Amino acid sequence: MATQTATPSTRRAAPVRRGSFGRWAADLGWRHLVGVIFVVFAAFPLVYVVSASLAPGGTLTGSNALFAAVDSANYADLGATAFWTWFGNTMMIAVVTSLGTVLMGAAAAYAFSRFRFSGRRVGLTSLLVVQMFPQMLAFVAIFLLLLGLGNVVPALGLNSRVALICVYLGGALGVNTFLMYGFFNTVPKELDEAAKIDGATHAQIYWTIILRLVVPILAVVGLLSFISTFSEFIVARIVLQSESNWTLAVGLYSWVSSQLDANWGLFAAGAVISAIPVLVLFLFLQKYIVGGLTAGSVKG
Amino acid sequence: MSSQLTTQRVEPEPAESPRTSHARTWSAGFLAKLALLAVVDAFGVYVVLAAWNERSFGILWSMVALLAAANYVYFSKRALALKYILPGLAFLLVFQIYVVFYTGYVAFTNYGDGHNSTKEQAVEALLVQNERRVEGSESFPLVVVSDGGELGFAIVDADGDVEAGTADRPLAGVDDASVDDGVITAVPGFELVDRQGVLERQDEVTALRVPVSDDAEDGSIRTTDARTGYVYESVLVYDEAADTMTDTTTGVVYAPNDDGQFEAEDGSTLAVGWRVVVGFDNFVTAFGDARYAQPFVAILLWTFAFAILSVLTTFLLGLFLAITFNEDRLRGRRIYRTLMILPYALPPFLAALIWSGLLNRRFGFINEVLLGGAEIPWLTDPTLAKLAILGVNLWLGFPYMFLICTGALQAIPGDVLEAAQIDGAGRVRTWRSVVLPLLLVATAPLLISSFAFNFNNFTLVYMLTGGGPRFADASVPLGHTDILITMVYSISGIDGNAPRNYGLASALSIVIFVIVGTISAIAFRRTRSLEDIN
Fold first, then answer.
1. From A69, B368, B404, B411, which residue has the greatest number of CB atoms within 10 Å?
2. Number of residue pairs across A and B with CB atoms under 8 Å?
């Protein structure tokens, strides 16, 4: 459509419908042109990687003719590698981390939103300060901490997926508490007060009333946490040392960094499969994600 | 206290005092809590015992404190808010706050290769590493034995008795061992390793040292041929009273210095040192030592340029697209939008790796197909590599900016625009004076976090260029596209590609934190996003 619009707009000499065409091009036509250009810009690496994953041979050079031949060998070959182990590790770590993040973040946000206690303001402010020091900056200290912990409890030491989850959960309160805190504040307090009068305990109010009302923000936080854990590299790289414990980020990096040319087809197939869970989640839930991203800021 | 009396009555009473805690009734919730805390306590006690075994008192006392806090919080009536905060807080304290402070501590030490343990361990390591065969010492017939996979030696000592031991267990006499013509043929408690087995584990055998006794100064047995053992003794002697090391061959005396090493009078030092606090030495090295200072300045400037340009380019493109598609009459808006969001939905590490293939000099799609075989060194020329990184980050980042700009534009109330129109403002004027300020107010906090994010955008740089191309001065593993965080990673040596220097790496982490923290704090204060903490 855009190619059609581009040509008429350049030669405006056409006597008939001149006004309407010119106007259409000035109003809407150029928008379609921009749209097509940037859709191509946004999508071509993805199209390329899908094509590369289907190219037989699996070298970088062999992947340059888009969809010249279609062959599922690369996908089949993944079975002979540690790819599916990494995939399982990543899913396990990301799911557990996002569940933990949601539970801990929601509980903390609830406390900050509903209770008035000494240290509340200080607590909120310190959370804001702490999250300015991202965990990745402290990777040396994380490494040394796990080295020490591992001597005592091997399950919490280096090369343990549980330890990695614990490290990720260390960042659960940071930014998420704020995101949820704002949302919890929008749930009217009269609701819990009414429930309290009816004889509900704090735990009942929290689990059966509040949590149900804030499901949208729980979904957003869980999702963002899932996505960021899924792609986290530096801490995973330091903590997970043996190949069978690696996540996708660490594993796929090792393929590309070691022998770019030879492993390219395998990598492309792995990349397509790895991208699918996140891509699908994202596209289905983009409305909520966008809402969640902007909710915190547009308000201020 | 009065509530304790009512706890015995289980029947629900509407008139029950509201101060009665549900913690004192045997409800399902209480039982669940009890069970959970029992699990937590059991785990905690296990950790405490294990820490006691390992003499890790830091871990031991932290765990005791955490356990005490957990039990107090969940069984007390007072700490209601903490009940909700504690789980997250515990993780936050251990894996974030402690780690931040520990980074601060390490930044002031010389922790790294050659300085990675305590003084006692360093002394022991020095004694072991400097062992030499005692000149003219007698030799012992020896066989290699194994105890459940762990290798050891058995020897026939000067008295004709058999002694055996492993790396962890000093030699000890073995009764009922059989010796046939000076060759040991059976050692109770061990299996003999045959010739083939020795050949398979040759490196282990030649590296193995079995202490003669518990005292490290008595030396140890080593072998080169798996048939004969010799006594090796350390050429160094540690004098505990004087706290000095003496080299018995040269007579040189080494005394500990401030840098955590043994140093002789002529200034020479022994290889293994220990961790000491060195004050601001690491910071001085970062800013003053020519090897680090020059790359550091270049990297600092590039980090700022990268972070600022990334925010700027992605924001401008995102804004442009948001304006373009903020037009109700445009058909297919949603399709355009969905397709354009794709890069944002792709895990960033995949994007960086895919682009590293696309931009490959010889085989990459960009050079080979789009540019017809031009071998443009996108990732290996200093300037082009920087452009490539900015370009890929533009690809990765514009959808996010597009989304938030769209959101912000749609949030601008229509009546404000109408009012501007009535006041006679033209399209451009309305834009400059009304829309843009409102848009910037709304997006400013996100732009700040985007700056902070890109300042530490490790994944992109590490996966796309690995920091390369390298600086001409190859003494440090740094390159033209390294940003501060990748510099920290390289210098730490944590991946084994460079000597480990945890102290310097932590010092640089602190520097990054101070930079990002200061900028964010100033910016946030300006935009007053702190306002809604009431």
1. B404
2. 316
* Residue among A28, A140, A253 minimizing CB distance to B492: A140
Per-residue pLDDT of B2-11, as tens digits, reads 344 333 444 4
Range of the domain at A173: 81-297
Q: pLDDT for B266-280, tens place per residue? A: 777 777 778 888 888
User: For position B390, what pLDDT does the model report?
Assistant: 95
Task: State ipTM.
Answer: 0.85
CATH number of the domain residue A265 falls in: 1.10.3720.10
The whole-number pLDDT of residue A262 equals 64
Q: Is the same domain home to A135 and A168? A: yes
Cα Rg for chain A, rounded, in angstroms? Answer: 25
Six token digits for residue A6: 């581009």
Domain shared by A56 and A144, yes or no? no
Contact A46 B346 (CB under 8 A): yes
pTM for the model stands at 0.81
Measured CA to CA, the distance from residue A245 to residue A160 in angstroms comes to 7
| A206 and A92 assigned to the same domain | yes
Residue A154 near chain B (CB below 8 Å): no
From the list A33, A74, A280, A299, the residue with the least C-alpha distance to B411 is A299
| B139 neighbors B221 (Cβ within 8 angstroms) | no
Least confident of A65-69, B52-56, B74-78: A65-69
- Which phi and psi angles does A250 have, rounded to 5°? -70, -45
**In this structure, what token pair is assigned to residue B494?**
């944590």
Which residues of B fall within a CB distance of 8 Å from A279? Answer: 342, 345-346
Check CB contact of A284 with chain B, cutoff 8 Å. Answer: no
Q: Do A174 and A64 share a structural domain?
A: no
Tell me, yes or no, whether A275 lies in a domain. yes
Which residue in B14, B96, B516 is closest to A170 by CB distance?
Answer: B96
- Clarify whether residues A118 and A46 are in a common domain: no
Chain A residues close to B29, C-beta within 8 Å: 201, 203-204
Q: Are residues A41 and A116 in the same domain?
A: no
Instruction: Provide the domain count of chain A.
Output: 2
pLDDT of residue A260: 55
